[in-house]
Amino acid sequence: MKSKYIYVIVCFNILTVICQNILHHPCSFLPRCRCRLEHHKNGVEVDCSHVQLKVIPSVPSYVIKLILKHNLIDDIPNGVFSNNTILTELDLSDNRIHTLTEMSFNGLQNLLKLNLQNNDLSKGNYSFGAKTFSHLKNLKYLNLKNNFAKHYQPDLSKLVSIESLHIDFISNGFHFLSKQYGNLHKLAILDLSGSTGKCFLPILTNDSFQYISHVQHLDISTCKIQQINQGALTMLKNITYLDVSNNTCLKFEGLENITSDLQFSNIKILKVNNLHKISDLTTVLKTSHIKDLHNTSLQYAFADGNRLQTIEKTAISYLPKSLKFVSLRGNPLKFGLYIFEVVLLVNLETADVSDLFRHQTDLHPEKCISDSIYTCKGDSVIAPRYMDPSDVTYLNAFDESNERDTPDFLSPATVPIPINLKHVNYSSGSLRMDVPKLKLSGNKLETIDFSNNILYALNGPIYNVKNVKVLNVSTNFCSNISKFFFSSDFKNLEHLNFHNNLLGIVLPDDNEGKILNNLESLIELVLSKNRIPNLPENVFKSQRNLQKLDLSENMFTDITFRVSHMTHLKELDLRGNRITIISDPFTSQFDSLATKHNFSVDLNKNLLECNCISIKFIEWMTTTNVRLKNIKKYKCMLWNRTNVALHSPKETYNLLRKHCASYENLELALVLGVLLFIILIMGSLMYRYRWKLRYLYYIVKVKYSSLHSETEEEYSYMYGAFVSYADEDRIFVHNTLLQKLEVENGIQLCLHKRNFLPGNDIATNITSAIHNSRRTLVIMSHNFLKSYWCMFEYNMARMESIYERRNENVVFLMFYEQMSPRDLPLNVLEMIQSKSYIEYPNDEYGDTVFWDQLVNALK
Ligand SMILES: *[C@@H]1O[C@H](CO)[C@@H](O)[C@H](O)[C@H]1NC(C)=O
Ligand SMILES: *[C@@H]1O[C@H](CO)[C@@H](O)[C@H](O)[C@H]1NC(C)=O
Ligand SMILES: *[C@@H]1O[C@H](CO)[C@@H](O)[C@H](O)[C@H]1NC(C)=O
Ligand SMILES: *[C@@H]1O[C@H](CO)[C@@H](O)[C@H](O)[C@H]1NC(C)=O
Ligand SMILES: *[C@@H]1O[C@H](CO)[C@@H](O)[C@H](O)[C@H]1NC(C)=O
Ligand SMILES: *[C@@H]1O[C@H](CO)[C@@H](O)[C@H](O)[C@H]1NC(C)=O
Ligand SMILES: *[C@@H]1O[C@H](CO)[C@@H](O)[C@H](O)[C@H]1NC(C)=O
Ligand SMILES: *[C@@H]1O[C@H](CO)[C@@H](O)[C@H](O)[C@H]1NC(C)=O
C-alpha cells in the first residue's frame, strides 16, 4: 500500500512538472532551481548552479540529473542521496567540499557521472578510500581534478565500471600510477592534464604507465614533464589519443622518444603543441623526431607553438600516409624545399598553418633541467640540443630558401598541393607579395583562408581551383585585383571574403563587371571596410546567385549598382556608410526582390536625412516589404539639423508631410517668382535684341528657301541696291531715282513695288531683298520714319551689315528732306554719326554732284 501511495505522489509531482510545461522553469520543490523534464529518460533534471547554496538540498527520487555547480557547499552529509537511486548524473564542481565519508554517496548505485572538480578535498586529510566509492558500482565518469595539493592516489579500485577518469597527479618521486588502476579494466580515458587540474610528472619512465596499458585516451598535457624516457609509452598498445602538449621542457628530443614509443600503437590523434617555450630559438623538425610514426595510422597531428621554422628534407616522407589533419599554428614557418614533399601526404585533407608569427610572452616560463645544462657553459650562447652542430650541412642547404619570405621560386612552376587537401588555413602568415600567375597541382581544395597577410595585389590568374568554395582574403592591404585574377576555374566559388582591404581603389572603375565576372556561383560576398565610394551599375552582373552582400563600413553615399537580377539576394548590408537617401530606381529594385522572398537591408549607422527631399524615401520605408534590419537603431537628420531616431518611419513621415506641405507652397511661390523673373529678363533681352532676333529669324528663313537655288560659291548680288522708301516718296523713286541709277548707270535696283515676289510674306521679302542686294539705299524722310515697314527695312539692313557682312557699309542714307536731328530716332542718329550719308540737294548744280556721289557709293 505504502509503495503505491508513494508512486502516486511521484506521478503527481511529475505531472505538475509536465503541466507547467516549460523547458526550464522553477522547480516546485526548490524554487531557486530550474527543472526540466527529460521525456525519453522519464525523469527530471534539476539545475541549481550559481544560486549560492550552502547545503545540498534533498531532491525527490525521480530526479535523474542534479547540477549543483558553482555554489558554496562545503559538505556532503551522510546519506543525503540515499533516496536518489535513479540519479545518473551529479555535478558538484566548483564548491568547497572538503571531506568525503563512507556514506557520502550511499544510494547512488546507478550514478553514471560524478563531477567533483574544483573542490577542497585536500583539506580533509584525504580521508576517502575504497569504501567511499564502493557505492558507485556503475560510475563511468569521475572528475576529481583540482582537489589535491600533494601526492595522493585515492583507492579507486571499487569503481569497477569506470571508463573516464579525470584526476590530479602530483609526483613525490614516484612517477607512476598505482597498481590499483590495473583493476579498472574498462578505463579508456585518463586525463591527468594540468590545464584543468594539478599535474606534476617531471619524469616518465617505462614503469609510469605499466598498470594502465589498456587506456586508449591519455592526456598528460601541462604536466611539467622534463623527460620522457624511451619505453615510457610502449605499454600503451591500444592508445589512440595522446596529448603531451604544453610541456615546454620536452623539446623535439622528447618528441623523438614519444614517437619511438608509439610506433606499434594504434595512435590516431597526437597532440604535441608547445613542446618548446615561446622564448626558445627557432627549431627544425628532423627526420629522427618523427620517423617512427611512419608505420602508424596517425590521422590527426597537432604541433602548434613549437617555434618551428623549417622541416628537414625527407622528414615529411616519413609521416604516415594515413595523416588527414595537420595543425602547425603559431610556428614561424618559412618556405623551404620541404614544400615540395607535402604532395606525399596523399590523404591530407586539412592543413592549418595559420598564425605564423604569434607574438606572445610567457610570463612564467617553465624552468627546464636542460636549460641549466646548456646555458651555464661559459659566456657564449650554446646552441640547444636540437641544433646539433653536426646538422650544419643540411641547415645550409635550406639557408638559401630560408632567406626569402615569399615562395617566388614557386611562381612559374606548379604549386605543389597534396592531392586530397581540402582546407588550407594560412591566416596571419605575414605573406607579403603580389600574387602572380599560379597553377596549382591537382587538388580538391575547398576552403582557402589567406586572411591577415599582405597580398598587395591579386594579379593572377590562378588556375586549377575548380573545387574551391570558400576564399578568405580579408585584411590583406589589397588594393588591386586584375580583371583576370578570378579565372574561369573559380566558377564554383561560393563564399568570398574581402573584408578590410582597399578595393575602393579598383572596383569603382570596373564598369563592365569584369573582375567578378567568372564568379557565377557566389552566394556570399563580403566587401566591408574597403573604402569604396561607389560602384558601377554592372559590377555584380554575374552574381545572380548571391544571397548575402556585405558592403558595410564603406563610403557609399548612394546606391548606384544593380541588384535586381540577384533573385536570391536575402541580405544587403549597408551599415556604416554615408547614405543620406536611396533614390527611387533602387528602392524599387529592393521592392522587386522583396516580392520574391525574405529580403533585408541594413541601413544602420548611415547619414539618413528626413527632409522634404527625402520624403519619398521615408514614405517608401513605411510601405515597403523589405525588412529594414536594425531599424530601431536608425537615426536621421531633420530639416533643422537635429538627429532623431527613425524607429517609426510612419511617425516621421507624417511629421515630414506636415512640414513639407508649407514647404511645397513656399516652393511653388519660389518657382513662380523665379519663372516670372526669367520671363522678365527674357522679355527685356528680347526687346533689346529684337532686331537681331527678327533679322536672324528671317535670314534663316531666306537662306533655307534659297538653299536649293544657288550655291555660296557663285553667289553674287542679285541687285546693286535695294531701295527702301516710304510710299509717299514713290514718285521720286520710280521716276528720278530709277532713271538716274538703273537706266543711266546700270545699277540694278530692287523696288518693293516691282521686285517683291507675290505670295511671300512681306518680312521675308524684305530680308531676302536686303540680303540679295549689295547696298540698301534708304530714302530718309518724315514719312519714312512714320512707316512701320520702312523702319523694319532700315533695322533689318542695319542687322545685315552688322551680322552678315562684318560691318561692311550696307546701309546708305539719303535724306530726301531737310530733317533736324531732333526728328531722328536714336538708331538713325547712330548711323549718321558713324557712316556716310547724303542729302538730296534740290538745285541744278548740286544735282549733278549728288548723282555722281550716289552712283559711286552704290557701285
Ligand atoms: C600551458 O602551461 C601554462 C603553465 O605551464 C599554463 O598557464 C597554460 O594555461 C597552459 N596552456 C594550455 C593550453 O594548457
Ligand atoms: C624498465 O626498464 C628497465 C631497464 O631499463 C627494466 O629492467 C625493467 O624491467 C623495465 N620495466 C618494465 C615494466 O618494462
Ligand atoms: C587492446 O584492444 C583489443 C581490442 O580492442 C583488446 O583485445 C586488447 O586486449 C587490448 N589490449 C590491452 C593491452 O588492453
Ligand atoms: C629519451 O630517452 C632517453 C632514453 O630513455 C633518455 O635518456 C632521454 O633523456 C630522453 N629524452 C628526453 C628529452 O626525455
Ligand atoms: C615499417 O614497417 C616496415 C615493414 O612492415 C619496415 O620494413 C619499416 O622499416 C618500418 N618503418 C619504420 C620507420 O619503422
Ligand atoms: C584560420 O585560423 C584562424 C586563426 O589562426 C582562425 O581564426 C580562422 O577561423 C581559421 N580559418 C578557417 C577557415 O578555419
Ligand atoms: C592594377 O594592376 C594592373 C596590372 O595588373 C595595373 O595596370 C593597374 O594600373 C593597377 N591599378 C592600380 C590602381 O594600381
Ligand atoms: C526573414 O529572415 C529573418 C532572418 O534573416 C528572420 O528572422 C525572419 O523571421 C524571416 N521572416 C520571414 C517572414 O520568413
Low-pLDDT residue spans: 15-22, 373-411, 709-714
What is the structural class? alpha/beta
* CATH C-level name of one domain: Alpha Beta
Q: Could you give a short account of the major beta sheet?
A: 24 strands, mixed
Principal-axes geometry comes out as: elongated
Strand percentage, roughly? 15-25%
Briefly note the CATH topology name of one domain: Leucine-rich repeat, LRR (right-handed beta-alpha superhelix)
Number of helices: 17
- CATH H-level superfamily title of one domain: Ribonuclease Inhibitor
- What's the end-to-end separation, in Å? 150 Å
The distinct ligands, each listed once, are:
2-acetamido-2-deoxy-beta-D-glucopyranose
CATH architecture of one domain: Alpha-Beta Horseshoe
* Residues in helix, %: 10-25%
Q: What integer is the average pLDDT?
A: 85
Kindly provide the radius of gyration, computed on alpha-carbon positions and rounded to a whole number of angstroms.
50 Å
Number of strands: 44
Architecture overview:
The protein has 859 residues and is α/β, with parallel strands linked by helices. Among the domains are: 36-149, Leucine-rich repeat, LRR (right-handed beta-alpha superhelix) (Alpha-Beta Horseshoe); 168-344, Ribonuclease Inhibitor (Leucine-rich repeat, LRR (right-handed beta-alpha superhelix)); 719-858, Rossmann fold (3-Layer(aba) Sandwich), CATH 3.40.50.10140. Helix content is 25%, strand content 17%. It is built from 17 helices and 44 strands. The protein has a 24-stranded mixed beta sheet, with helices on one face. A hairpin with a 7-residue loop joins strand 1 (25-26) and strand 2 (34-38). Helix 8 (615-623) packs antiparallel against helix 9 (649-688). The termini are far apart. Residues 15-22, 373-411 and 709-714 have low confidence and may be disordered. The structure holds 2-acetamido-2-deoxy-beta-D-glucopyranose (8 copies). One 2-acetamido-2-deoxy-beta-D-glucopyranose binds next to loops.
